[in-house]
């Protein structure tokens, strides 16, 4: 079932997210609904707070992005031997990040019709549980790492806009107010701030 995505300004996007265990009620259904919601919105990642569930759970699909790129772009955006992932992250934590950073444009399903250049580490090492609740420790690079960091931020009450300089955020304020009031329409179901 496709769930409505919360818009910028909705309070749940800033709520403290909580760890969950394998007995979390209807976890499998929530994960399946999140995948359907993400793909229905043509997204590459989605975090539980974006669908009104403040828990430490998010999804990332960088494989579809990889598959759509030409070889030259893959060299710039993905590390060697990285063909992308389709992965569920539960109770994730970043335990290491590279000093090397890079800047690329990011958007967000909760902030439609807006994208900004954001600087992030090129690689990160994550500890998390996968969909089967098996503990993982993996290092991710490039676009995959960027997508993970973006979604991880949601579970930390952080939006990609928070990484912008204050002046840039101020310049975007008018657009953000329109998004929060539902005046910017998305091509997928949304729930707007009250």
TrEMBL record:
The active site is at 151. Belongs to the polypeptide deformylase family. Keywords: Hydrolase, Iron, Metal-binding, Protein biosynthesis. Its EC number is 3.5.1.88. It comes from Niastella soli. Removes the formyl group from the N-terminal Met of newly synthesized proteins. Requires at least a dipeptide for an efficient rate of reaction. N-terminal L-methionine is a prerequisite for activity but the enzyme has broad specificity at other positions. InterPro entries: Peptide_deformylase, Peptide_deformylase_sf. This is Peptide deformylase. Fe cation binds at residues 108, 150, 154. It catalyses: N-terminal N-formyl-L-methionyl-[peptide] + H2O = N-terminal L-methionyl-[peptide] + formate. It holds the Pfam family Pep_deformylase. Binds 1 Fe(2+) ion. It comes from the Bacteria. Its cofactor is Fe(2+). Coiled coil: none annotated. HAMAP family: Pep_deformylase. GO terms for molecular function: peptide deformylase activity.
């Amino acid at each position: 079932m496709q769930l409505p995505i919360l818009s910028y300004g909705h309070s749940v996007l800033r709520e403290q997210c909580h760890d969950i265990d394998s007995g979390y009620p209807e976890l499998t259904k929530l994960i399946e609904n999140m995948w359907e919601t993400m793909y229905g919105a043509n997204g590459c990642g989605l975090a539980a707070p974006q669908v009104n569930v403040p828990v430490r759970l998010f999804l990332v699909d960088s494989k579809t992005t990889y598959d759509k790129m030409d070889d030259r772009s893959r060299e710039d955006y993905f590390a060697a031997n990285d063909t992308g992932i389709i992965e569920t992250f539960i109770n994730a934590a970043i335990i290491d990040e590279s000093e090397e950073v890079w800047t690329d444009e990011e958007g967000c399903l909760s902030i439609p019709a807006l994208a900004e250049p954001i600087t992030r580490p090129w690689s990160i090492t994550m500890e998390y549980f996968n969909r089967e609740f098996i503990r993982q420790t993996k290092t991710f690079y490039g676009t995959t790492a960027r997508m993970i960091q973006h979604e991880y931020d949601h579970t930390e009450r952080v939006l990609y806009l928070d990484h912008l300089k204050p002046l840039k955020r101020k310049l975007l304020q008018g657009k953000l107010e329109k998004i929060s009031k539902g005046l910017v329409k998305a091509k997928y179901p949304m729930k707007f701030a009250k």
